[in-house]
Amino acid sequence: MRVVVQRVRNASVHINGRTYASINAGLAVLVGVAHGDSDQDVAYLADKIANLRILADDTGHMNRSVRDVGGEVLLISQFTLIADTRKGRRPSFKGAEVPELASELIGNLASALNDTGISVQTGKFQADMDVEIINQGPVTIIIDSQQRHLPRQSA
């Protein structure tokens, strides 16, 4: 699973001109599910997202997590995060999981985040959504659960 996590002042999803979901300060999380992803990936990402210290403390430093500040999460499925652009000019989405399994894993991620005490809103799976994000900072972090076993690079 690959996620793009953005620290936001607020974020919302609109479908057919109507607000479907919205959050105040917290994290907007775009989620792509790849073939072979499992509940192990869900558990890894739920822990990372819930505890990622990218929100400001009283001195303005990124020392607090969304859990620490009582923030919200807007979770939005986005299969295009799994795009392969290495060949040609048209992205390939062959690496994306089939919709039924992807929907289930994204639902599991929402539940796992909710279980940590975070208020979670979601977009609508496979809908044509208009997403509004007021990125604060800007702060944007990419996390790929398949890279969790790779050795860390030293500076």
Summarize the structure.
This protein is an alpha/beta fold and 155 residues long. The chain has helices spanning 39-51, 66-69, 99-115; strands spanning 2-15, 18-23, 26-32, 55-56, 62-64, 72-77, 119-122, 130-144. Helix 1 (39-51) packs across helix 3 (99-115).
Task: Kindly describe this structure.
There is one protein chain. It is built from three helices and eight strands. Helices cover 22% and strands 37% of the residues. The model has no long low-confidence stretch (mean pLDDT 95). Strand 6, helix 3 and strand 7 form a beta-alpha-beta unit. Strands 1, 2, 3, 6, 7 and 8 form a six-stranded mixed β-sheet that branches. It is α/β, with parallel strands linked by helices.
User: Pairing-aware structural class of the strands and helices?
Assistant: alpha/beta
* Order of helical and strand elements: EEEHEEHEHEE
| Unreliable runs | none
Shape: globular
| Helical content band | 10-25%
- Per DSSP, what share of the residues sits in E-state strands of 2 or more residues? 35-45%
Terminal residue distance? 26 Å
Quaternary structure: single chain
Q: Count of DSSP helices?
A: 3
Q: How many beta-strand runs?
A: 8
Q: How can the largest sheet be summarized?
A: 6 strands, mixed
Mean pLDDT: 95
Radius of gyration: 15 Å
